[in-house]
Design brief:
Strands 1, 2, 3, 4, 5 and 6 form a six-stranded antiparallel β-sheet that branches. The chain is 25% helix and 42% strand. It has one domain: Hotdog Thioesterase (Thiol Ester Dehydrase, Chain A, Roll), CATH 3.10.129.10. The protein is an alpha+beta fold. It contains three helices and six strands; from the N terminus they run E-H-H-E-E-E-E-E-H. 19% of the residues are buried.
């Protein structure tokens, strides 16, 4: 299952050359991950308040292939590549009109309030299988 999230490039997302500043792709894929988790039916605020669990990026490997520019409409595709008891590996790709601009492999972990890894909540494991 691939989740898709559409967003627009704003002036504030660009650098002096008028292209999206490289670090902003990380912001774009973060927004898409938040929407993906929401689409799974997970309320992250409630998850933190009731179970003390939050998600954190443990690792990211990214490739910048083509630049995005001001006012481009982008689509971020998020797909689960692998899952263990405490870790999710996602593929996130940013497209403009079907052209791949950026892709990343993102490893997420679930952490407790002390910052220690914990098992992914059962509801999430069920939803992504």
């Amino acid at each position: 299952m691939t989740h898709r999230c559409t967003l627009r490039v704003y002036y504030e997302d660009t650098d002096l050359a008028g292209i999206v500043y490289y670090a902003n792709y990380l912001r774009f894929i973060e927004r898409a991950r938040t929407e993906w988790v929401r689409a799974l039916g997970v309320d992250q605020v409630r998850l933190k308040a009731e179970e003390g669990i939050v998600f954190a990026v443990r690792r990211i490997e990214a490739d910048y292939l083509q630049p995005a520019r001001f006012d481009d409409e982008l689509t971020v595709a998020t797909t689960v590549e692998a899952q263990t008891g405490v870790r999710l590996v996602l593929r996130q790709e940013v497209f403009r009109a079907g052209a791949l601009l950026f892709n990343a492999q993102v490893t997420l972990v679930a952490l407790n309030a002390a910052g220690q890894p914990v098992r992914l909540p059962a509801m999430i494991r069920r939803q992504i299988h």
